[in-house]
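User: I'm new to structure prediction. If I give you an amino acid sequence, what do you actually give back? Let's try with this one:
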Amino acid sequence: MAISMYQASIPQLKKMLGNLSSLLTKAEEHVAAKGIDGAVLVEGRLFPDMFPLAKQVQIACDQVKNGMARLASIEAPKFDDNETTIAQLKERIAKTIAFVDTIKPEQVNGTEAKEIKFSVKEWSFEFVGEQYVLTWIIPNFYFHVTTAYNILRHNGVEIGKADYLG
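Assistant: Good question. You get back a string of structure tokens that encode the predicted 3D arrangement of the chain. For your 166 residues, that looks like this:
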């Protein structure tokens, strides 16, 4: 039995968004316990030419909401990318999950061969649905979730693999 497009994407993406929110909760507890300004983490990055934590969370959410909306042929909500606190990042995750919860399996299933075309800055992309999920959405999503985890861990938040995997 083959796995459906819905099962290959939405349940795991939602689970990992929840795990990311839990990581951010631990980050809130960490800054409160240490008396650190939470903006230090929100603006934290692993290397000067890498995006900060806020952008990592924003992009992870965008991969899910925009990707699933493209597959389902519906409009994705627009977010302003203006989060400056950990609580705001958690709210963005919650809004993303709430949106994805509105997508029904029948809106995504059967989209394996659907043409997906979009642009990011000066780059244009063309995929078919299955390729889009497996080679674009999922790898990009995990890259940004993992980078967010690494920024938190690098800055002393006591999290580990079990927190990442949930």
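You can read the tokens as a compact description of the fold. Here is one thing that stands out. The longest strand covers residues 115-120.
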